[in-house]
Write a structure and sequence with these properties.
Family: Belongs to the ARG7 family.
Pfam family, one: Auxin_inducible
Number of strands: 3
Radius of gyration: 14 Å
InterPro entries: SAUR_fam (IPR003676)
Strand content: 5-15%
Number of domains: 1
Shape: globular
Protein name: Auxin-induced protein X15
Organism: Apostasia shenzhenica
Number of helices: 5
């Protein structure tokens, strides 16, 4: 699995930067379809500028990302058109993304995930 992911990153010249971060930063990437095994999401709070990210579908299995999806469901329901929108600050999503990537690389997870989700959402 990791070998396949590294091959995808090398094919796109993004090894070391993280494919999702590199693609997000390219100007023409917004219209591009994500490669097989990846998905597009939008991140940003209501009224703030949103950014597009391309993330591995493996994120769907991580408890932190599942929490973000539940928040998106509560905020927007299931009727979203296009990419799923995650209602959280982009800076916070970068931190969550780093944790998910670290957990995926080490094969572990922590019991700290529930503590981080409350930082993203405001009452």
């Amino acid at each position: 699995m990791k070998g396949e992911r590294q091959q995808q990153q090398q094919q796109h010249g993004m090894l070391g930067l993280g494919f999702q971060r590199g693609l997000k930063q390219r100007e023409g990437a917004a219209a591009a379809l994500p490669p097989k095994g990846w998905m597009a999401i939008r991140v940003g709070e209501e009224g703030a500028e949103q950014q597009r990210f391309i993330v591995p579908v493996g994120y769907l299995n991580h408890p932190l990302f599942v929490g973000l999806l539940k928040a998106a469901e509560e905020e927007y329901g299931f009727a979203q058109k296009g990419a799923i929108t995650i209602p959280c600050q982009v800076e916070y999503f970068h931190r969550v993304q780093s944790i998910i990537d670290r957990d995926n690389n080490t094969g572990g997870g922590g019991s700290y995930h529930h503590l981080l989700l409350h930082l993203c959402f405001h009452a």
